Amino acid sequence: MPTESPGSDRGIIYIVENAKSDLDRGFSPLKTLAGLSHDWGHLVQVTRDKDLRAVVVKLAFLRGLIGSYVRDEVRTRSVKALDKLDTTDAVKDMLRGELPSITEDHFDMDLVPDYSQLCKDLTTLTGIEDPSTMKAREVFLAKATDTVMSVLASVGREMRRELTEQVAEFLGQVLRDSGEKPLSVFEQNLDAMIDKFHKSAYGW
Most buried pick, 126, 147, 149, 194, via CB within 10 A? Predict the structure, then answer.
């Protein structure tokens, strides 16, 4: 069992309060966790408390699991959202083949779709290059682009809202239960969150 020091305890509470404040002010859950990870690493350096080091690895692992969760959910939800949109069958048919390859890398840390990255990876958004079909190409690309961005922006908003609720609950639980052992409480809640996202990603 870790021996918790007063300096580390105060630092942990301060970091968690800051993270909760960031989330309450509208920071995305991904940015909030990135800031929490950075601040925790800084706390390790300042306090030289070896008991804090394992949490750095766990936070990195959690962020990776959340990335996998976002990828899997976006792929499933984007195809469902596509079916509900009013667009051409040609656009839908092409995107049904490409949306399952979407990853968390096609979003920024605010869970907003990254248009430049999407254009690099989705052939639907590159269109056809035959000069004789430029007008048709422009029309097709406009529809395809609008469809992709509408679908992924909607799914990104859903994911952000859900993850915000989960991260807020995690941070709030730590602050409510920290008492005299904030490190132990933080790790218990962190482990529970890791277990949840690990099961979502890998089924166990």
Answer: 147
CB environment 110-127: b (16+ within 10 A), e (fewer): ebebeeeebeebbebbeb
Q: Which residue has tokens 């254009």? A: 119
d(C-alpha 99, C-alpha 102), whole Å: 5
Write out the two tokens for 188. 């218990």
Query: Nearest CA to 183 among 62, 8, 48?
Result: 8
Residue 116: HSE in the Cβ half-sphere, 13 Å Cα cutoff:
1
Distance separating alpha carbons of residues 56 and 197, to the nearest angstrom: 17
Q: Look up tokens 């040609």; give the residue.
A: 90
Residue 135: how many CA atoms within 13 Å on its side-chain side? 1
DSSP symbol at 18: H
What amino acid occupies position 185?
V
In contact, 183 and 1? CB cutoff 8 Å: no
Best CA proximity match to 100, nearest among 166, 160, 155:
155
First to last CA, the chain: 26
β-sheet bridge partners, residue 107:
113
Torsion angle, alpha carbons of 101, 90, 127, 122, to 10? -10
Q: For residue 198, give both structure tokens.
A: 């690990």
Place of tokens 């990853």: 103
pLDDT, tens only, 26-79? 999 999 999 999 999 999 999 999 999 999 999 999 999 999 999 999 999 999
